[in-house]
Write a sequence for this structure.
C-alpha cells in the first residue's frame, strides 16, 4: 500500500484517511470532478471565514464564469451525492504541527524571540539560527556591541584586552554589515514538489524518506533558495539537486559579520 512508503506519523494518517474516504474519492476522480470540488466536498479547503478555496477552473458542465455562491451550491450537491454532508476532515486533528505554522512563526521557540534552534517548522531553515533559545535578548540580526554574550549569534563576542573595545565593534563597525529579509514565501523560498514523488515506478520507502522534513518546510526550500540559501543541495538528495548560491551567501562571504543574519 502506498501509505506504507510514508514515514511516521504520515503513514498512519494516510491509511486512516484512505480507509475512510478512499473509495468515494476514487469514484469522484473517475467522474472527473475537479480537485477544488473534491477538496471542498470533504471540507478540507474552507478558510476560517467560511469561504471556499478555488484554484482550478470551474467544472466544464457549469461554465467558467461560475460565481462563488454557485460553486458553493454545486459543492453541497456533491456532498449529498457522495454522502459527505456530515463529514468534517480537519487536517489539524491529524497533523497538528502542520497547522502551527499558519502564523509563519517558529513552532519551537522557547524564548518567543521569533528565532529557533530547530530547523523545520519555520525554524532556522527560514531565518537565522538562535544561539540561545532561553534568552529573548539573544537572536540573529540584533544590533548590539556583544561583550560577554554573542547577542546577535554571528559568533563574535568579547572584548579585546589590549584596547578594551568589544570585538563586535572593532571588527564590524563601519564594514557595511547587513542581513537580508525577504517578503513572501513560496516565490522566494524555492517552492518545489520533488518530481520523484510523482513517478509511480519510484515508489519506495527511500523515495519518501525526506517527506516529513519537506512537509515541515511546506515543500519550500528557503535554505537552498536564491535569497537565503545557506546549505548544500546534496543534503536533500534525491528530492532536489544542483548548485546553491544566494544573496545571503554572498553577503556572508564578503563580510563574516553578516553570519546568520537572514
Amino acid at each position: 500500500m502506498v501509505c506504507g512508503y510514508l514515514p511516521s506519523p504520515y503513514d498512519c494518517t494516510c491509511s486512516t484517511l484512505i480507509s475512510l474516504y478512499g473509495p468515494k474519492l476514487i469514484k469522484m476522480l473517475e467522474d472527473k470532478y475537479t480537485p477544488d470540488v473534491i477538496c471542498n466536498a470533504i471540507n478540507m479547503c474552507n478558510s476560517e471565514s467560511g469561504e471556499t478555496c478555488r484554484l482550478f477552473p470551474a467544472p466544464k458542465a457549469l461554465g467558467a464564469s461560475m460565481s462563488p455562491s454557485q460553486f458553493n451550491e454545486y459543492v453541497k450537491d456533491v456532498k449529498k451525492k457522495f454522502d459527505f454532508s456530515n463529514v468534517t476532515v480537519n487536517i489539524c486533528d491529524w497533523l497538528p504541527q502542520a497547522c502551527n505554522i499558519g502564523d509563519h512563526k517558529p513552532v519551537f521557540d522557547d524564548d518567543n524571540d521569533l528565532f529557533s534552534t530547530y530547523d523545520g517548522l519555520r525554524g532556522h531553515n527560514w531565518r537565522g539560527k538562535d544561539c540561545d533559545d532561553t534568552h529573548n535578548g539573544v537572536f540573529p540580526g540584533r544590533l548590539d556591541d556583544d561583550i560577554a554574550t554573542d547577542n546577535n549569534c554571528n559568533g563574535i563576542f568579547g572584548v579585546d584586552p589590549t584596547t578594551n573595545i568589544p570585538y563586535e565593534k572593532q571588527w564590524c563597525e563601519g564594514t557595511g554589515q547587513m542581513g537580508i529579509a525577504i517578503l513572501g514565501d513560496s516565490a522566494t523560498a524555492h517552492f518545489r514538489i520533488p518530481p520523484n514523488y510523482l513517478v509511480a515506478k519510484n515508489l519506495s520507502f527511500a523515495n519518501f524518506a525526506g517527506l516529513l522534513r519537506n512537509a515541515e518546510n511546506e515543500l519550500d526550500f528557503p535554505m537552498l533558495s536564491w535569497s537565503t540559501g545557506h546549505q548544500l543541495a546534496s543534503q536533500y538528495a534525491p528530492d532536489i539537486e544542483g548548485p546553491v548560491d544566494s544573496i545571503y551567501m554572498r553577503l556572508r562571504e564578503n563580510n563574516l559579520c553578516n553570519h546568520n543574519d537572514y
